[in-house]
Design a protein that fits this description.
By secondary structure, this protein is of the alpha/beta class. It folds into two domains: 114 residues, Aspartate Aminotransferase, domain 1 (Alpha-Beta Complex), CATH 3.90.1150; 221 residues, Aspartate Aminotransferase, domain 2, CATH 3.40.640.10. Helix content is 40%, strand content 14%. Strand 3, helix 5 and strand 4 form a beta-alpha-beta unit. Helix 2 packs across helix 11, helix 4 crosses helix 10 and helix 13 packs parallel to helix 15. One of its GO terms (cellular component) is cytoplasm.
Length: 378
């Protein structure tokens, strides 16, 4: 068999989590909590199962859940999404991203991707014979250079993929960033995927500048989101895509033959759970307490950092500790010190190495204390 993705290897998340297990290391590599989600949500899923919602859901998703999502978006961002035509429930945000790319990208189309980037974007573009054009963001702030973006646009450029809050850097796109994205995408007639899975995990009084806030941008954007990330149940693999009708019609053509429909009882449970806005509005304070605790615990370490502005990830710069490449350093940290992290060069254009590792602080307090003790000992 001839591989369609011959250069692709096992994802770094799988590699580091496996290494953590083999060496009995604390796993701050992969982005999932080590605590349980809300028991009420679990009870609502069980209730939905007992009430008989165990067969296929409607292809676009449960109507009540789509209505709750549309209401949340419209109330939070001043948008005008219709639950009937503009919202589709997906098997996680990764499937939403894949489906948006599958519905949009043809052979030879170019897609601008900001690096460091979540590692699902480029393989999907390649699978549909598109070409990724990486624009490297740089520490310490990882801010986009919009002049560079515009210089990178050519006659074959079809799409830009953005992610804010940004994984792995914790950077946020500002209002000015989104206005520039809107100007450029309208001027050059580009589609946009806005990966907003951490939309409710934002710190220090900042706000989320969703693509939904910017009308001309929203008209050409697939917004993707994750309930698994939001409600601490990543294994449930449930999210959604929001897009205007003309884009969503193409999205659903792929979705219906790729997934068709998503876990029905979880959809029914979420439709009820989302009626209380506090379920997601309290997330920022919840995770900021964890970020602040973790950074306070490692304040005397030799690692340098810029506090994460969003997501539940923190970058640490180890350049004053070692001159080793970040993959070698992450392996050493796991094997010799018992702490698993993610080397960030794997997300960068041409594997550029800034001597930084990414740690997940979506963990119990005792887990963060144990991890900090290791970091402080180096």
């Amino acid at each position: 068999m001839i591989s369609k993705l011959p250069e692709l290897t096992t994802t770094i998340f799988t590699v580091m989590s496996k290494m953590a297990q083999e060496y009995g290391a604390i796993n701050l590599s992969q982005g999932f909590p080590d605590f349980h989600g809300d028991p009420l949500l679990v009870d609502l899923v069980e209730r939905a199962m007992r009430e008989g919602y165990n067969q296929y859901a409607p292809m676009p998703g449960d109507p009540q859940l789509r209505a709750q999502i549309a209401s949340k978006l419209n109330n939070n961002y001043g948008s005008n999404y219709s639950e009937e035509t503009d919202i589709t429930i997906t098997a996680g945000a990764t499937q939403a991203i894949f489906t948006a790319i599958a519905a949009s990208i043809h052979k030879g189309d170019e897609v601008i991707v900001f690096s460091p980037a979540y590692d699902c974007y480029e393989p999907a573009v390649s699978l549909f014979e598109g070409v990724s054009r990486q624009i490297q963001l740089r520490p310490p702030n990882y801010s986009p250079d919009w002049e560079e973006v515009e210089r990178s646009i050519g006659p074959k450029t079809k799409m830009i993929i953005v992610n804010s809050p940004h994984n792995p850097s914790g950077m946020l796109f500002s209002k000015e960033d989104m206005e520039e994205l809107q100007r450029i995408s309208v001027k050059h007639q580009l589609l946009v995927i806005s990966d907003e899975v951490y939309e409710h995990i934002i710190f220090d009084g900042n706000i989320h500048n969703s693509a939904a806030r910017f009308p001309e941008l929203a008209e050409r954007t697939f917004i993707t989101a994750s309930f698994g990330k939001t409600f601490h149940n990543t294994g449930w693999k449930i999210g959604y895509c929001a897009a205007p009708k003309v884009l969503m019609e193409e999205f659903r053509k792929v979705h219906q033959y790729n997934v068709f429909s998503v876990n029905h009882p979880i959809q029914k449970a979420l439709a009820t759970y989302l009626q209380d806005a506090q379920t997601y509005e309290d997330l920022a304070a919840f995770y900021q307490q964890k970020r602040d605790l973790f950074l306070d615990l490692i304040s005397s370490s030799r690692f340098k950092y810029v506090p994460s502005k969003g997501t539940y990830f923190q970058l640490l710069d180890y350049s004053e500790i070692s001159s080793e490449g970040d993959i070698a350093f992450a392996e050493w940290l796991t094997k010799e010190k018992g702490l698993a992290s993610i080397p960030t060069s794997v997300f960068n254009a041409n594997g550029e190495d800034f001597h930084q590792i990414r740690l997940c602080f979506a963990k119990k307090e005792e887990t963060l204390e144990q991890a900090a003790a290791i970091l402080n000992s180096i």
